[in-house]
Amino acid sequence: MKVMNNPIRPITPWRETYRQLLRSVGSRGPALRKSLIGLFLAAALQGLALGCIVPLFIAVLSRPDADAARFWLIAMSCLMIAATVFRWRAQAFDYDGSMAEATHDLRTLLGEQLRRMPLEAIQDKRAGEMNATLLGNVDENLNYTLLILNLILVALVTPFATALFLMAFDWRLGIALLLMFPAIVPLYRWRRPVFGANMRLLADAHERTSADIVEYTQGISVLRASCSAGLKAARLQAGFEHLEQIQTLGHRKSSKPDILVTSIVEVGLMLIFALGVVWVLGGTLDIAILAAVFVIVVRFADPLATFVVYTAILELIEAALERIETMLAVPALPQKPAAARPESHDVMFERVTFRYVQASTPSVTDFTALLSARSLTALVGPSGSGKTTLTRLLLRHADPQAGRVLIGGVDIRTIPPDELNSLISVVFQDVYLFDDTVLANVRMARPDASEAEVEAALRAAQCLEFIERLPQGLNTPLGDIGGRLSGGERQRISIARALLKNAPIVILDEPTAALDTESELAVQRAIDTLVQDKTVIVIAHRLSTIVGADRILVMEEGRLAETGSHRELLAAGGRYRAMWDAQQSVKAWHVGAIPSGEQATVS
Hints:
Blueprint: H1 14-24, H2 29-51, H3 53-62, H4 66-90, H5 92-95, H6 98-116, H7 119-123, H8 127-142, H9 145-166, H10 171-178, H11 180-218, H12 220-225, H13 234-281, H14 287-328, E1 347-354, E2 364-371, E3 376-380, H15 387-394, E4 402-407, E5 410-411, H16 417-423, E6 424-427, H17 438-443, H18 451-460, H19 464-467, H20 487-501, E7 505-509, H21 517-530, E8 535-539, E9 551-556, E10 559-564, H22 566-572, H23 575-587
Parallel strand pairs: 3-8, 3-9, 6-7, 7-8
Antiparallel strand pairs: 1-2, 1-4, 4-5, 9-10
Protein backbone atom coordinates (compact mmCIF):
# COMPACT_ATOMS: atom_id res chain seq x y z
CA MET A 1 0.00 0.00 0.00
CA LYS A 2 1.36 3.36 -0.94
CA VAL A 3 1.75 5.84 1.89
CA MET A 4 0.30 9.22 0.97
CA ASN A 5 2.18 12.29 2.07
CA ASN A 6 0.28 14.50 4.46
CA PRO A 7 0.32 18.18 3.43
CA ILE A 8 2.45 20.44 5.62
CA ARG A 9 0.07 22.48 7.74
CA PRO A 10 0.68 25.99 9.05
CA ILE A 11 2.13 26.04 12.55
CA THR A 12 -0.60 26.36 15.16
CA PRO A 13 0.40 29.09 17.62
CA TRP A 14 1.03 27.71 21.09
CA ARG A 15 -1.42 30.29 22.38
CA GLU A 16 -4.21 28.60 20.40
CA THR A 17 -3.10 25.14 21.57
CA TYR A 18 -3.20 26.45 25.14
CA ARG A 19 -6.76 27.73 24.62
CA GLN A 20 -7.86 24.42 23.09
CA LEU A 21 -6.37 22.57 26.03
CA LEU A 22 -8.21 24.74 28.56
CA ARG A 23 -11.47 24.28 26.63
CA SER A 24 -11.01 20.51 26.64
CA VAL A 25 -10.91 20.32 30.46
CA GLY A 26 -14.02 22.46 30.81
CA SER A 27 -14.70 23.69 34.34
CA ARG A 28 -11.26 22.51 35.44
CA GLY A 29 -9.59 25.05 33.16
CA PRO A 30 -8.64 27.42 36.04
CA ALA A 31 -7.09 24.52 37.98
CA LEU A 32 -5.08 23.44 34.93
CA ARG A 33 -3.99 27.04 34.31
CA LYS A 34 -2.81 27.22 37.94
CA SER A 35 -0.86 23.97 37.47
CA LEU A 36 0.85 25.30 34.34
CA ILE A 37 1.81 28.51 36.14
CA GLY A 38 3.21 26.35 38.94
CA LEU A 39 5.31 24.36 36.48
CA PHE A 40 6.60 27.60 34.95
CA LEU A 41 7.61 28.95 38.37
CA ALA A 42 9.20 25.61 39.28
CA ALA A 43 11.30 25.69 36.10
CA ALA A 44 12.35 29.31 36.77
CA LEU A 45 13.30 28.58 40.39
CA GLN A 46 15.26 25.54 39.26
CA GLY A 47 17.16 27.78 36.84
CA LEU A 48 17.98 30.27 39.60
CA ALA A 49 19.09 27.40 41.84
CA LEU A 50 21.49 26.18 39.16
CA GLY A 51 22.71 29.74 38.72
CA CYS A 52 23.79 29.71 42.37
CA ILE A 53 26.55 27.29 41.34
CA VAL A 54 28.49 30.30 39.95
CA PRO A 55 28.88 32.32 43.21
CA LEU A 56 29.24 29.09 45.15
CA PHE A 57 32.23 28.04 43.02
CA ILE A 58 33.69 31.55 43.36
CA ALA A 59 33.36 31.36 47.16
CA VAL A 60 34.95 27.91 47.23
CA LEU A 61 37.61 28.01 44.46
CA SER A 62 38.63 31.60 43.68
CA ARG A 63 38.03 33.60 46.81
CA PRO A 64 37.46 31.14 49.63
CA ASP A 65 34.77 32.51 51.91
CA ALA A 66 32.99 30.08 54.21
CA ASP A 67 30.13 32.46 55.00
CA ALA A 68 29.52 33.24 51.33
CA ALA A 69 29.75 29.57 50.37
CA ARG A 70 27.28 28.70 53.15
CA PHE A 71 24.89 31.46 52.00
CA TRP A 72 24.87 30.36 48.36
CA LEU A 73 24.59 26.71 49.30
CA ILE A 74 21.58 27.48 51.49
CA ALA A 75 20.11 29.73 48.78
CA MET A 76 20.51 26.99 46.14
CA SER A 77 18.94 24.44 48.47
CA CYS A 78 16.00 26.71 49.29
CA LEU A 79 15.41 27.47 45.63
CA MET A 80 15.51 23.75 44.73
CA ILE A 81 13.12 22.94 47.57
CA ALA A 82 10.79 25.74 46.43
CA ALA A 83 10.98 24.46 42.84
CA THR A 84 10.14 20.94 44.05
CA VAL A 85 7.18 22.22 46.09
CA PHE A 86 5.81 24.24 43.15
CA ARG A 87 6.25 21.28 40.79
CA TRP A 88 4.64 18.85 43.21
CA ARG A 89 1.67 21.14 43.79
CA ALA A 90 1.37 21.79 40.05
CA GLN A 91 1.35 18.08 39.25
CA ALA A 92 -1.34 17.53 41.87
CA PHE A 93 -3.70 18.10 38.93
CA ASP A 94 -2.64 14.57 37.98
CA TYR A 95 -2.16 13.13 41.46
CA ASP A 96 -5.40 14.30 43.10
CA GLY A 97 -7.56 12.86 40.33
CA SER A 98 -8.42 16.13 38.59
CA MET A 99 -6.94 14.83 35.33
CA ALA A 100 -8.97 11.60 35.54
CA GLU A 101 -12.11 13.64 36.29
CA ALA A 102 -11.39 15.97 33.36
CA THR A 103 -10.92 12.93 31.11
CA HIS A 104 -14.22 11.49 32.33
CA ASP A 105 -16.03 14.79 31.80
CA LEU A 106 -14.62 15.12 28.29
CA ARG A 107 -15.77 11.62 27.37
CA THR A 108 -19.18 12.40 28.86
CA LEU A 109 -19.33 15.59 26.80
CA LEU A 110 -18.44 13.61 23.67
CA GLY A 111 -21.12 11.07 24.58
CA GLU A 112 -23.69 13.84 24.90
CA GLN A 113 -22.55 15.17 21.53
CA LEU A 114 -23.12 11.71 20.04
CA ARG A 115 -26.73 11.87 21.23
CA ARG A 116 -27.18 15.34 19.72
CA MET A 117 -25.44 14.70 16.40
CA PRO A 118 -27.52 13.78 13.36
CA LEU A 119 -27.25 10.01 12.98
CA GLU A 120 -26.36 10.57 9.34
CA ALA A 121 -23.06 12.11 10.53
CA ILE A 122 -22.39 9.14 12.83
CA GLN A 123 -23.21 6.58 10.16
CA ASP A 124 -20.40 7.99 8.01
CA LYS A 125 -17.94 6.89 10.72
CA ARG A 126 -16.86 3.33 11.42
CA ALA A 127 -17.25 2.07 14.99
CA GLY A 128 -13.49 1.82 15.51
CA GLU A 129 -12.97 5.40 14.37
CA MET A 130 -15.44 6.64 16.97
CA ASN A 131 -13.70 4.44 19.54
CA ALA A 132 -10.36 6.05 18.64
CA THR A 133 -11.80 9.52 19.18
CA LEU A 134 -13.61 8.73 22.44
CA LEU A 135 -10.75 6.75 23.98
CA GLY A 136 -7.40 7.25 22.25
CA ASN A 137 -7.70 10.94 21.43
CA VAL A 138 -9.00 11.83 24.89
CA ASP A 139 -6.10 10.01 26.52
CA GLU A 140 -3.58 11.60 24.14
CA ASN A 141 -5.11 14.99 24.85
CA LEU A 142 -4.91 14.88 28.64
CA ASN A 143 -2.86 12.06 30.11
CA TYR A 144 0.55 13.29 28.97
CA THR A 145 -0.08 17.03 28.94
CA LEU A 146 1.58 18.02 32.21
CA LEU A 147 4.47 15.62 31.65
CA ILE A 148 5.32 17.04 28.23
CA LEU A 149 4.79 20.66 29.22
CA ASN A 150 7.01 20.15 32.26
CA LEU A 151 9.79 18.80 30.02
CA ILE A 152 9.41 21.72 27.61
CA LEU A 153 9.47 24.29 30.42
CA VAL A 154 12.54 22.67 31.99
CA ALA A 155 14.22 22.73 28.57
CA LEU A 156 13.44 26.44 27.98
CA VAL A 157 12.65 28.37 31.14
CA THR A 158 15.29 26.76 33.36
CA PRO A 159 18.32 27.61 31.17
CA PHE A 160 16.84 31.05 30.41
CA ALA A 161 16.62 31.86 34.14
CA THR A 162 20.14 30.55 34.67
CA ALA A 163 21.47 32.70 31.82
CA LEU A 164 19.87 35.81 33.32
CA PHE A 165 21.40 34.98 36.72
CA LEU A 166 24.79 34.35 35.09
CA MET A 167 24.82 37.85 33.60
CA ALA A 168 25.27 39.27 37.11
CA PHE A 169 28.70 37.60 37.26
CA ASP A 170 29.81 37.67 33.61
CA TRP A 171 27.57 39.39 31.09
CA ARG A 172 29.41 37.87 28.14
CA LEU A 173 28.68 34.25 29.10
CA GLY A 174 25.15 35.19 30.08
CA ILE A 175 24.43 36.76 26.70
CA ALA A 176 26.14 33.86 24.89
CA LEU A 177 23.84 31.41 26.67
CA LEU A 178 20.79 33.59 25.98
CA LEU A 179 21.67 33.61 22.27
CA MET A 180 21.08 29.86 22.22
CA PHE A 181 17.34 30.51 22.38
CA PRO A 182 17.08 32.57 19.16
CA ALA A 183 19.22 29.84 17.56
CA ILE A 184 16.70 27.17 18.59
CA VAL A 185 13.74 29.05 17.06
CA PRO A 186 14.60 28.35 13.38
CA LEU A 187 15.29 24.71 14.25
CA TYR A 188 11.93 24.51 15.94
CA ARG A 189 10.12 26.20 13.04
CA TRP A 190 11.91 23.90 10.60
CA ARG A 191 10.96 20.66 12.33
CA ARG A 192 7.54 21.35 13.83
CA PRO A 193 5.51 21.38 10.57
CA VAL A 194 7.05 18.02 9.66
CA PHE A 195 6.25 16.66 13.09
CA GLY A 196 2.70 17.94 12.71
CA ALA A 197 2.20 16.27 9.32
CA ASN A 198 3.69 12.98 10.53
CA MET A 199 1.65 12.91 13.73
CA ARG A 200 -1.62 13.60 11.91
CA LEU A 201 -0.81 10.94 9.33
CA LEU A 202 -0.02 8.53 12.16
CA ALA A 203 -3.23 9.45 13.98
CA ASP A 204 -5.25 8.75 10.81
CA ALA A 205 -3.55 5.37 10.46
CA HIS A 206 -4.23 4.47 14.11
CA GLU A 207 -7.88 5.44 13.68
CA ARG A 208 -8.22 3.31 10.58
CA THR A 209 -6.46 0.35 12.20
CA SER A 210 -8.69 0.63 15.27
CA ALA A 211 -11.75 0.52 13.00
CA ASP A 212 -10.33 -2.50 11.13
CA ILE A 213 -9.70 -4.38 14.39
CA VAL A 214 -13.23 -3.73 15.69
CA GLU A 215 -14.70 -4.79 12.34
CA TYR A 216 -12.52 -7.92 12.25
CA THR A 217 -13.48 -8.89 15.82
CA GLN A 218 -17.20 -8.41 15.19
CA GLY A 219 -17.06 -10.35 11.92
CA ILE A 220 -14.71 -13.16 12.97
CA SER A 221 -17.37 -15.87 12.56
CA VAL A 222 -18.08 -14.77 8.97
CA LEU A 223 -14.36 -14.52 8.20
CA ARG A 224 -13.72 -18.02 9.51
CA ALA A 225 -16.63 -19.43 7.56
CA SER A 226 -15.28 -17.86 4.36
CA CYS A 227 -11.67 -18.92 5.07
CA SER A 228 -10.67 -15.27 5.33
CA ALA A 229 -9.37 -15.18 8.90
CA GLY A 230 -5.73 -14.75 9.91
CA LEU A 231 -3.35 -13.67 7.21
CA LYS A 232 -6.16 -13.87 4.65
CA ALA A 233 -8.01 -10.98 6.30
CA ALA A 234 -6.83 -8.67 3.55
CA ARG A 235 -8.32 -5.44 4.82
CA LEU A 236 -6.92 -5.83 8.33
CA GLN A 237 -3.50 -6.86 7.03
CA ALA A 238 -3.46 -3.90 4.66
CA GLY A 239 -4.22 -1.61 7.59
CA PHE A 240 -1.37 -3.09 9.64
CA GLU A 241 1.02 -2.72 6.71
CA HIS A 242 -0.11 0.88 6.16
CA LEU A 243 0.54 1.68 9.84
CA GLU A 244 3.94 -0.01 9.69
CA GLN A 245 4.93 1.96 6.59
CA ILE A 246 3.92 5.26 8.17
CA GLN A 247 5.85 4.48 11.35
CA THR A 248 8.91 3.40 9.35
CA LEU A 249 8.69 6.45 7.11
CA GLY A 250 8.35 8.71 10.14
CA HIS A 251 11.46 7.22 11.77
CA ARG A 252 13.46 7.49 8.57
CA LYS A 253 12.44 11.07 7.94
CA SER A 254 13.05 12.21 11.49
CA SER A 255 16.22 10.37 12.53
CA LYS A 256 18.78 12.43 10.58
CA PRO A 257 17.16 15.84 11.23
CA ASP A 258 16.80 14.99 14.93
CA ILE A 259 20.47 14.05 15.16
CA LEU A 260 21.35 17.27 13.31
CA VAL A 261 19.26 19.40 15.70
CA THR A 262 20.77 17.70 18.74
CA SER A 263 24.27 18.15 17.37
CA ILE A 264 23.75 21.85 16.59
CA VAL A 265 22.53 22.58 20.12
CA GLU A 266 25.32 20.58 21.75
CA VAL A 267 27.97 22.20 19.53
CA GLY A 268 26.54 25.62 20.41
CA LEU A 269 26.86 24.89 24.12
CA MET A 270 30.41 23.63 23.65
CA LEU A 271 31.26 26.83 21.76
CA ILE A 272 30.06 28.83 24.76
CA PHE A 273 32.34 26.77 26.98
CA ALA A 274 35.18 27.25 24.48
CA LEU A 275 34.67 31.02 24.64
CA GLY A 276 34.98 30.77 28.39
CA VAL A 277 38.27 28.92 28.04
CA VAL A 278 39.60 31.66 25.74
CA TRP A 279 38.56 34.37 28.19
CA VAL A 280 40.16 32.52 31.11
CA LEU A 281 43.41 32.21 29.20
CA GLY A 282 43.17 35.90 28.35
CA GLY A 283 42.79 36.74 32.03
CA THR A 284 39.31 38.29 31.67
CA LEU A 285 37.30 35.45 33.25
CA ASP A 286 37.53 33.81 36.63
CA ILE A 287 38.27 30.09 36.28
CA ALA A 288 35.69 29.37 38.99
CA ILE A 289 33.01 30.88 36.76
CA LEU A 290 34.22 28.71 33.87
CA ALA A 291 34.01 25.62 36.08
CA ALA A 292 30.47 26.57 37.06
CA VAL A 293 29.53 27.17 33.40
CA PHE A 294 30.91 23.73 32.52
CA VAL A 295 28.54 22.15 35.08
CA ILE A 296 25.65 24.26 33.75
CA VAL A 297 26.40 23.40 30.10
CA VAL A 298 26.50 19.68 30.89
CA ARG A 299 23.21 20.03 32.77
CA PHE A 300 21.44 21.85 29.92
CA ALA A 301 22.89 20.01 26.93
CA ASP A 302 20.34 17.21 26.88
CA PRO A 303 17.10 19.20 27.63
CA LEU A 304 17.96 21.91 25.09
CA ALA A 305 18.99 19.38 22.44
CA THR A 306 15.81 17.32 22.82
CA PHE A 307 13.44 20.28 23.16
CA VAL A 308 12.56 20.22 19.46
CA VAL A 309 11.82 16.49 19.72
CA TYR A 310 9.39 17.18 22.58
CA THR A 311 7.33 19.26 20.18
CA ALA A 312 6.55 16.06 18.24
CA ILE A 313 4.55 14.84 21.23
CA LEU A 314 2.98 18.27 21.49
CA GLU A 315 1.83 17.79 17.89
CA LEU A 316 0.24 14.49 18.91
CA ILE A 317 -1.70 16.35 21.60
CA GLU A 318 -2.70 19.02 19.07
CA ALA A 319 -3.90 16.37 16.60
CA ALA A 320 -6.05 14.83 19.34
CA LEU A 321 -7.44 18.25 20.28
CA GLU A 322 -8.34 18.92 16.65
CA ARG A 323 -10.22 15.64 16.30
CA ILE A 324 -12.11 16.23 19.53
CA GLU A 325 -13.04 19.79 18.59
CA THR A 326 -14.08 18.64 15.10
CA MET A 327 -16.47 16.15 16.64
CA LEU A 328 -17.81 18.67 19.14
CA ALA A 329 -18.31 21.19 16.34
CA VAL A 330 -20.80 19.00 14.43
CA PRO A 331 -24.07 20.95 14.81
CA ALA A 332 -27.09 19.26 16.29
CA LEU A 333 -30.28 19.21 14.31
CA PRO A 334 -31.97 22.60 14.81
CA GLN A 335 -34.74 22.51 17.38
CA LYS A 336 -37.67 24.80 16.71
CA PRO A 337 -39.61 26.35 19.62
CA ALA A 338 -41.72 23.73 21.34
CA ALA A 339 -45.32 23.48 20.16
CA ALA A 340 -48.29 21.69 21.68
CA ARG A 341 -47.82 18.00 22.39
CA PRO A 342 -49.46 15.84 19.70
CA GLU A 343 -52.97 14.86 20.75
CA SER A 344 -53.29 12.17 18.09
CA HIS A 345 -50.71 9.91 16.48
CA ASP A 346 -51.30 10.03 12.76
CA VAL A 347 -48.12 10.59 10.73
CA MET A 348 -47.98 13.05 7.84
CA PHE A 349 -45.19 13.37 5.27
CA GLU A 350 -45.78 16.72 3.57
CA ARG A 351 -43.90 17.23 0.26
CA VAL A 352 -40.75 15.71 1.75
CA THR A 353 -37.49 15.73 -0.22
CA PHE A 354 -34.29 14.34 1.29
CA ARG A 355 -30.81 13.66 -0.06
CA TYR A 356 -27.98 12.08 1.95
CA VAL A 357 -24.81 14.13 2.20
CA GLN A 358 -22.74 11.65 0.22
CA ALA A 359 -25.43 10.97 -2.40
CA SER A 360 -25.73 12.65 -5.77
CA THR A 361 -29.51 12.25 -6.06
CA PRO A 362 -32.36 12.49 -3.52
CA SER A 363 -33.48 9.32 -1.75
CA VAL A 364 -36.98 10.76 -1.34
CA THR A 365 -38.51 13.33 -3.68
CA ASP A 366 -41.66 15.41 -3.09
CA PHE A 367 -43.26 12.64 -1.01
CA THR A 368 -46.68 13.30 0.50
CA ALA A 369 -48.73 10.74 2.44
CA LEU A 370 -50.99 10.60 5.50
CA LEU A 371 -50.63 7.52 7.72
CA SER A 372 -53.80 7.38 9.77
CA ALA A 373 -53.70 6.85 13.52
CA ARG A 374 -54.36 3.29 14.76
CA SER A 375 -53.95 1.85 11.29
CA LEU A 376 -51.41 -0.41 9.65
CA THR A 377 -49.56 1.16 6.72
CA ALA A 378 -47.08 -0.84 4.66
CA LEU A 379 -44.19 0.62 2.69
CA VAL A 380 -43.18 -1.58 -0.22
CA GLY A 381 -40.88 -1.20 -3.20
CA PRO A 382 -37.48 -2.30 -4.47
CA SER A 383 -34.31 -1.79 -2.45
CA GLY A 384 -33.19 1.83 -2.55
CA SER A 385 -36.67 3.17 -3.21
CA GLY A 386 -36.69 5.29 -0.01
CA LYS A 387 -38.68 3.14 2.45
CA THR A 388 -36.09 3.09 5.23
CA THR A 389 -35.23 6.75 4.61
CA LEU A 390 -38.83 7.71 5.41
CA THR A 391 -38.71 5.92 8.76
CA ARG A 392 -35.36 7.55 9.58
CA LEU A 393 -36.86 10.95 8.87
CA LEU A 394 -39.75 10.11 11.19
CA LEU A 395 -37.24 9.10 13.89
CA ARG A 396 -35.42 12.37 13.09
CA HIS A 397 -32.08 10.82 12.30
CA ALA A 398 -31.91 13.72 9.85
CA ASP A 399 -34.16 16.53 8.62
CA PRO A 400 -35.50 16.75 5.07
CA GLN A 401 -34.12 19.49 2.83
CA ALA A 402 -37.71 20.33 1.87
CA GLY A 403 -41.09 19.58 3.34
CA ARG A 404 -42.21 18.54 6.83
CA VAL A 405 -42.85 15.42 8.89
CA LEU A 406 -45.71 15.76 11.38
CA ILE A 407 -47.16 13.66 14.19
CA GLY A 408 -50.72 14.58 15.12
CA GLY A 409 -50.34 17.75 13.08
CA VAL A 410 -47.21 18.83 15.02
CA ASP A 411 -43.93 19.33 13.16
CA ILE A 412 -41.48 16.86 14.72
CA ARG A 413 -38.79 19.59 14.65
CA THR A 414 -40.72 21.30 17.44
CA ILE A 415 -40.97 18.15 19.58
CA PRO A 416 -38.12 17.78 22.10
CA PRO A 417 -35.90 14.77 21.23
CA ASP A 418 -36.72 12.77 24.37
CA GLU A 419 -40.42 13.29 23.86
CA LEU A 420 -40.21 12.32 20.18
CA ASN A 421 -38.33 9.14 21.09
CA SER A 422 -41.04 8.28 23.61
CA LEU A 423 -43.66 8.35 20.86
CA ILE A 424 -42.04 5.74 18.60
CA SER A 425 -40.95 2.13 19.03
CA VAL A 426 -38.89 0.35 16.39
CA VAL A 427 -38.39 -3.35 15.73
CA PHE A 428 -35.52 -3.71 13.28
CA GLN A 429 -34.75 -6.65 11.03
CA ASP A 430 -31.19 -6.69 12.41
CA VAL A 431 -31.58 -6.61 16.19
CA TYR A 432 -28.83 -5.09 18.32
CA LEU A 433 -28.64 -6.37 21.88
CA PHE A 434 -26.03 -5.17 24.35
CA ASP A 435 -23.58 -7.33 26.26
CA ASP A 436 -25.76 -7.18 29.37
CA THR A 437 -28.48 -9.22 30.99
CA VAL A 438 -31.86 -10.01 29.48
CA LEU A 439 -33.44 -7.80 32.14
CA ALA A 440 -31.20 -4.81 31.35
CA ASN A 441 -31.68 -5.15 27.59
CA VAL A 442 -35.46 -5.05 27.89
CA ARG A 443 -35.62 -2.50 30.70
CA MET A 444 -33.67 0.11 28.72
CA ALA A 445 -36.97 0.85 26.96
CA ARG A 446 -38.33 2.08 30.32
CA PRO A 447 -35.67 2.19 33.05
CA ASP A 448 -38.22 2.68 35.85
CA ALA A 449 -40.11 -0.52 34.94
CA SER A 450 -40.41 -3.16 37.64
CA GLU A 451 -39.19 -6.71 37.12
CA ALA A 452 -42.80 -7.88 37.01
CA GLU A 453 -43.53 -5.43 34.16
CA VAL A 454 -40.48 -6.68 32.27
CA GLU A 455 -41.62 -10.29 32.72
CA ALA A 456 -45.07 -9.37 31.44
CA ALA A 457 -43.55 -7.84 28.30
CA LEU A 458 -41.36 -10.92 27.80
CA ARG A 459 -44.39 -13.19 28.22
CA ALA A 460 -46.36 -11.22 25.64
CA ALA A 461 -43.38 -11.41 23.27
CA GLN A 462 -43.23 -15.22 23.55
CA CYS A 463 -39.82 -15.08 25.30
CA LEU A 464 -40.27 -16.87 28.64
CA GLU A 465 -39.85 -20.36 27.21
CA PHE A 466 -36.30 -19.83 25.96
CA ILE A 467 -35.35 -17.52 28.86
CA GLU A 468 -36.09 -20.36 31.31
CA ARG A 469 -33.42 -22.40 29.53
CA LEU A 470 -30.75 -19.75 30.08
CA PRO A 471 -28.30 -20.41 32.96
CA GLN A 472 -29.32 -17.39 35.03
CA GLY A 473 -32.72 -16.66 33.55
CA LEU A 474 -33.42 -12.93 33.34
CA ASN A 475 -29.95 -12.19 34.74
CA THR A 476 -28.09 -14.07 32.01
CA PRO A 477 -25.61 -11.91 30.06
CA LEU A 478 -26.44 -12.12 26.35
CA GLY A 479 -22.91 -11.64 24.99
CA ASP A 480 -21.68 -9.26 22.34
CA ILE A 481 -24.60 -8.19 20.08
CA GLY A 482 -26.74 -10.82 21.84
CA GLY A 483 -24.64 -13.67 20.48
CA ARG A 484 -25.98 -16.16 23.07
CA LEU A 485 -29.41 -16.09 21.38
CA SER A 486 -30.71 -17.19 17.99
CA GLY A 487 -32.02 -14.70 15.44
CA GLY A 488 -35.65 -15.37 16.33
CA GLU A 489 -34.94 -15.10 20.06
CA ARG A 490 -33.17 -11.78 19.61
CA GLN A 491 -36.10 -10.55 17.58
CA ARG A 492 -38.55 -11.46 20.34
CA ILE A 493 -36.39 -9.68 22.95
CA SER A 494 -36.53 -6.61 20.70
CA ILE A 495 -40.32 -6.88 20.56
CA ALA A 496 -40.47 -7.24 24.36
CA ARG A 497 -38.50 -4.03 24.61
CA ALA A 498 -41.02 -2.30 22.33
CA LEU A 499 -43.93 -3.74 24.30
CA LEU A 500 -42.49 -2.40 27.55
CA LYS A 501 -42.02 1.03 25.99
CA ASN A 502 -45.67 0.99 24.83
CA ALA A 503 -45.20 3.86 22.36
CA PRO A 504 -48.24 4.88 20.27
CA ILE A 505 -46.33 4.59 16.96
CA VAL A 506 -44.58 1.37 15.96
CA ILE A 507 -42.17 0.88 13.06
CA LEU A 508 -41.56 -2.71 11.90
CA ASP A 509 -38.59 -3.07 9.56
CA GLU A 510 -39.20 -6.51 7.99
CA PRO A 511 -38.82 -8.21 11.40
CA THR A 512 -39.51 -11.76 10.18
CA ALA A 513 -37.59 -11.75 6.90
CA ALA A 514 -34.60 -13.80 8.07
CA LEU A 515 -36.38 -16.24 10.38
CA ASP A 516 -37.30 -19.89 10.06
CA THR A 517 -40.97 -20.88 10.00
CA GLU A 518 -41.22 -21.72 13.72
CA SER A 519 -39.48 -18.52 14.81
CA GLU A 520 -41.53 -16.48 12.36
CA LEU A 521 -44.78 -17.77 13.85
CA ALA A 522 -43.62 -16.93 17.39
CA VAL A 523 -42.44 -13.47 16.35
CA GLN A 524 -45.67 -12.83 14.43
CA ARG A 525 -47.74 -13.68 17.53
CA ALA A 526 -45.61 -11.25 19.54
CA ILE A 527 -46.06 -8.56 16.89
CA ASP A 528 -49.84 -9.06 16.94
CA THR A 529 -49.75 -8.18 20.65
CA LEU A 530 -47.43 -5.22 20.08
CA VAL A 531 -49.44 -3.43 17.40
CA GLN A 532 -52.86 -3.43 19.04
CA ASP A 533 -54.35 0.09 18.94
CA LYS A 534 -51.11 1.54 17.54
CA THR A 535 -50.16 3.52 14.46
CA VAL A 536 -48.09 0.87 12.69
CA ILE A 537 -45.66 1.36 9.80
CA VAL A 538 -44.31 -1.82 8.21
CA ILE A 539 -41.43 -2.00 5.75
CA ALA A 540 -42.05 -5.16 3.76
CA HIS A 541 -40.39 -7.03 0.93
CA ARG A 542 -42.56 -10.14 1.12
CA LEU A 543 -45.92 -8.83 -0.01
CA SER A 544 -47.77 -11.85 1.41
CA THR A 545 -47.08 -10.51 4.94
CA ILE A 546 -48.96 -7.24 4.40
CA VAL A 547 -52.08 -8.25 2.46
CA GLY A 548 -54.17 -7.24 5.50
CA ALA A 549 -52.67 -3.73 5.74
CA ASP A 550 -55.15 -0.88 5.85
CA ARG A 551 -53.07 0.96 3.26
CA ILE A 552 -50.06 0.12 1.14
CA LEU A 553 -47.68 2.77 -0.19
CA VAL A 554 -45.66 1.64 -3.21
CA MET A 555 -42.31 3.44 -3.47
CA GLU A 556 -40.18 3.71 -6.59
CA GLU A 557 -37.00 5.80 -6.93
CA GLY A 558 -37.93 7.90 -3.91
CA ARG A 559 -41.43 8.76 -5.11
CA LEU A 560 -44.89 7.50 -4.26
CA ALA A 561 -45.84 5.34 -7.22
CA GLU A 562 -49.15 3.85 -6.00
CA THR A 563 -51.31 3.74 -2.90
CA GLY A 564 -54.29 1.69 -1.85
CA SER A 565 -55.30 -1.59 -0.23
CA HIS A 566 -53.97 -4.94 -1.43
CA ARG A 567 -57.12 -5.65 -3.40
CA GLU A 568 -57.24 -2.17 -4.94
CA LEU A 569 -53.62 -2.30 -6.04
CA LEU A 570 -54.01 -5.75 -7.60
CA ALA A 571 -57.03 -4.51 -9.53
CA ALA A 572 -55.10 -1.43 -10.72
CA GLY A 573 -52.60 -3.68 -12.51
CA GLY A 574 -49.65 -1.36 -11.88
CA ARG A 575 -46.26 -1.69 -10.17
CA TYR A 576 -47.66 -3.50 -7.13
CA ARG A 577 -49.40 -6.10 -9.32
CA ALA A 578 -46.13 -6.76 -11.15
CA MET A 579 -44.30 -7.24 -7.84
CA TRP A 580 -47.03 -9.55 -6.54
CA ASP A 581 -47.05 -11.72 -9.65
CA ALA A 582 -43.25 -11.99 -9.58
CA GLN A 583 -43.27 -13.16 -5.94
CA GLN A 584 -46.08 -15.63 -6.54
CA SER A 585 -44.22 -17.14 -9.48
CA VAL A 586 -41.15 -17.66 -7.28
CA LYS A 587 -43.20 -19.89 -4.97
CA ALA A 588 -43.84 -22.25 -7.90
CA TRP A 589 -40.14 -22.76 -8.67
CA HIS A 590 -38.61 -26.15 -7.89
CA VAL A 591 -35.35 -27.88 -8.65
CA GLY A 592 -35.90 -30.48 -11.33
CA ALA A 593 -34.48 -33.98 -11.32
CA ILE A 594 -30.88 -34.21 -12.48
CA PRO A 595 -30.47 -36.72 -15.28
CA SER A 596 -27.16 -38.54 -15.40
CA GLY A 597 -24.46 -36.44 -17.01
CA GLU A 598 -26.63 -33.30 -17.10
CA GLN A 599 -26.64 -30.13 -14.99
CA ALA A 600 -29.46 -29.18 -12.68
CA THR A 601 -32.19 -27.04 -14.21
CA VAL A 602 -34.63 -24.63 -12.61
CA SER A 603 -38.19 -24.96 -13.85
